[in-house]
Amino acid sequence: MNDEFQRRADEIIEAGRFIHGKGWAPATSGNFSARLADGRIAITVSGRHKGQLTPDDIMLIDAEGRSLDGKRPSAETLLHTSLYRRYPAVGAVLHPHGPSATLVSRLFRDEVVLEDYELLKALAGISTHESRIAIPIFPNDQNIPRLALRVEEYLELHGDIYGYIIAGHGFYTWGDSVADALRHVEALEFLFDLEIRLHGVKTL
After folding, report:
1. Side by side, which strands form the sheet with 41-44?
2. How far from chain centre, in Å, is Cα 125?
3. CB 10 within 8 A of CB 32
4. What is the dihedral of CA 161, 167, 169, 174, to 10 degrees?
5. Averaged over 6-22, what is the pLDDT?
6. Other Cβ atoms closer than 10 A to 59
7. What number is the average pLDDT over the span 156-179?
8. What is residue 1's predicted lDDT score, i.e. its pLDDT?
9. For residues 19 and 178, is the Cβ–Cβ distance under 8 A?
10. 1-10 pLDDT, tens per residue?
């Protein structure tokens, strides 16, 4: 493996420890990836504990999600590769199973709207709290190609977003680098928690 792969793998390992330490990727949940300059993607091997990742738990796939080293990626790999295909500047995709993202999908049906929060400025391109973003919520689906298509259709209709939630499951967010995507994870999980506190644990 080359030096770039090793650097991306190290970043994913560190992100996994941070995310698991926050309680946002319990057990073996979640999957994380980072794109290399040549278009190949470093991604977590299926079923690995995200707080205990080692270099052997990070594998290489091509842009179509095919294994390049014989290891098995997550069943949700298509959700990563479709984001890289749509956003050429994206360098990392993170998918934690945080409790706030999971619970907020029980409170809101189709989307959660985040507005007038100072922390929105942690998201790339937002410079004022006087901002409003919508995070769509998609029904959970074990048919990943169908779920990926649903996300694609939403993006075609609504334009760029900062992330999306899979109901009762977790959320996806991304950034130019692992550090950018990790900042989005931390900000969004915090903002989801505020929405839960604001609206209370009840069905709207």
Report:
1. 58-61, 41-44, 31-35, 92-95, 170-175, 163-166, 132-138, 111-115
2. 18
3. no
4. 0
5. 97
6. 23
7. 96
8. 58
9. no
10. 589 999 999 9
Cβ atoms within 10 Å of 73's Cβ, excluding its own: 22
Extract the tokens encoding 69. 């080293």
Give the tokens for residue 70. 């014989």
Count of residues in the chain:
204
d(CA 133, CA 98) in angstroms, rounded, equals 19
CA–CA dist 198, 202 (Å, integer): 11
Residue 172 token pair: 């996806």
- Which tokens hold the place of 167? 């109901």
Single pTM value for the model: 0.94
Residue in this structure with the two tokens 């505020």, named with its chain if needed: 194
First to last CA, the chain: 50
- Which of 89, 55, 92, 95 has its CA nearest to residue 74? 95
Beta bridge partners of 44: 58
